[in-house]
Amino acid sequence: MKKYDHKKIENKWQREWASKKIYKVDDSSKKPKFYVLDMFPYPSGEGLHVGHPKGYIATDVISRMKRMQGYNVLHPMGFDAFGLPAENYAIKTKTNPAIAVSKNVARYKKQLEIIGFDYDWSREINTTDPKYYKWTQWIFLKLLERGLAYESFEPINWCPSCKTGLANEDVEDGKCERCGTIVEKKPMRQWVLKITDYADRLLTDLDKLDWPESIKESQKNWIGRSEGALLDFKIKGSSENVQVFTTRPDTLFGVTYVVLAPEHELVSKLSFANKAEVKKYVEEAKKKNEIERTDAKKDKTGVELKGVKAINSANGTEVPVFVADYVLVNYGTGAVMAVPAHDTRDFDFAQKYELPIKTVIEPFSKTNITSAFEGDGILIDSGKFSGLKSEEAKRKITEFVGGSWVVRYKLKDWVFSRQRYWGEPFPVLHDGKNIVPVDISELPVELPKVKSYEPTGTGESPLAAIEKWVNVKVGKGKDAKILKRETNTMPQWAGSSWYYLRYMDPKNNKALVDIEKEKYWNEVDFYVGGAEHATRHLIYARFWHKFLYDIGVVSTLEPFKKLQSVGLIMGEDGRKMSKRFGNIVNPDDIVSTYGADTLRLYEMFMGPFDQAIAWSTNGMIGSRRFIERVWRLSEKVSKNGGQISGDTEILLNKTIKKVTEDITSIRHNTAVSNLMILSNTLEKEPVLSKSVFETFLKLLAPFAPHVTEELWKSLGNKKSIHVSDWPVADESKIVDKSVTIIVQINGKMRASFVSSRGETRENLEKIAFSLPDVKKWIGDNVVRKIIVVQDRLISIVI
Ligand code: ANZ
User: Fold this and answer.
1) Read out DSSP for 55-104?
2) Ligand 1 geometric centre to CA of 327 (Å)
3) Which tens digits make up the pLDDT trace of 623-662?
4) What does the domain layout of the chain look like in residue ranges?
5) Atom of ligand 1 at shortest distance to CA of 334?
6) What's the predicted TM-score (pTM) here?
């Protein structure tokens, strides 16, 4: 027997699979389709560490099994190469991003190739390819045409380190998601997409999805739907009104003050005595970020607008008006009616500023008066509404004061422009007053090559300095005009919001995706990636998909039917893998020393797929040993038949069933452990039947595609194992051959014995009456009746 030499085997089969094109995907196949997808990587300069391919290996296992089961499988790969990560890397290493990206892509591809994935590389996409981003720009033009893209001048999140505006989704705990710098608010011109128009659909359609509950929950919270009332408070002695948004109009009789956000327009409109004090407070508040302002544990601050009174139209009472930074300008109406008895934030504030606290909801259960009672209950001290339940009173009080019932969302429109070089140019021109969309026939608007691509920090992108590109002459002769190109670029998330569609038809230059091909591939059946995308990529892609549905480009309401999140692989020291900690394990080294099959098998065997697990070199070596044992097992295979024992046959069929089910639901670790148990049993057989060993190899093939191919071919098979048929369990063989029979005497269990399934009544009785325990319990008694339940029970009545 030859020695197991992974180097020889893996390289050989990878070349063979590529040259025979066994993974080529056919769009006109009559087979049922299966589309399994990974979140595509952005090729940063560091290359892959062993954590990155974990998800890719898992989908590769699924893809290979599905192909063997007779599906036409689409399992593509590409690169998400625009955006800050690639650009920051380029700036750091002083290389043009375009050059850096193509180098990094080549490096990533090499790293992926040696792991032995079944990608059809002829479908590779790259979001920075003008042939690709032509369609990203096309989608933008369609959004613009439908009024879903607009320019805005509102203050937005600004990262002073990345020197660009950011979307809310790019801000985590008040910090830039990319670099961790505290985000500032900066007013500037920007492009915004009206994702809020889709808020309701994005919310309700979550129910259709087979996604982890935790991810659905974060999307629900991100969208943040609230129903409530808009109520007006007149300002005494003025024509002004303060409109508030409240989810609790039933507490209106308990309002003891009104609060405006520091940025609320009325703060500068109203006249009051302490202008200077208020101005100072407002300036301070603007410096704080949203997290600091809304932190429930933080001390609440505010300033009264001296002399200003708001009138509660429910009962005519006059209440003071404050500015306080716990009220946010961009939610609801930017103003609240404060009910300290029933809202904790208001309660804290009222205590601090010694404002009255008036109870208007009688709790069902007794509560502590040292805190607000926030639940629903029975109204008290509320005029003619006293005695009503909260739910009923909400609408009635709203109606009584002439308010309106509305729905509000936490979700904000998507800030879609970046003041950076490395992104898709917007296909629009400015004529000084208006927006002039570039004609679709002129797409793509290519990103010009530049010398200086560093961000300017002025709020202008580096593109603004390239006059030759910026100024566009349109019209002829007297009518000729110089228009200016938009110089902002699209954000990192643009290209990834629709890429899964392009794999269906990657070379089409007439359409984003051909209608028939889209209908065939339909939605992504299984999508695997990091949970950190829950409220970014996964929300943006759903939004674009729904828009593309509305304009007839796609035929499904949702892009990703089933989603699975992947747990991180931590360093051997239990910390996150990072250069900083020096705990990075490079897959190239593992592949070279132990083999791609070992890496694949180990990463799938490590533990439950969605959990974070530390790398263990010993564990990995264990996987290598298993492969070596499989290699030696092949020596036992008899070319001419070979017997299989009954028990082994049962185990084999059980394993087929279990492995199939486990792979289907991405429990790859238990699939592997079942294969290990089976191989232990096969090792004990004196000779191994060829067909049994082949079945075993097929089950192992998705995990260890190279070694299984080698052994499969050495058994004389001509075609690749990866296009062979997936084994199907023989259910009749799964049923255990032996059963345990219980013996009852007068209804009490007195003995049991093992017999073969289907034993005759006569024999069962014979065995039962020969058992010492049964003899003892019957003693001298007369047997009156014997009941036999086939394969289960003998009941004796004495
Ligand atoms: C009066 C009231 C009484 C409230 C009460 C709550 C309890 P959700 O559920 O998150 O939508 N609110 C409204 N706009 C706000 C803003 N811009 N900044 C901070 N808080 C704001 O919360 C809605 C509630 O949050 C509203 O209902 C309002 O306080 C407050 F016993 O109005 B409530």
Assistant:
1) HHHHHHHHHHHHHHTT-EEE---EE---SHHHHHHHHHTT--HHHHHHHH
2) 9
3) 999 999 999 999 999 877 667 888 899 999 999 999 999 9
4) 138-198+414-485, 225-409, 618-733, 738-797
5) 17
6) 0.87
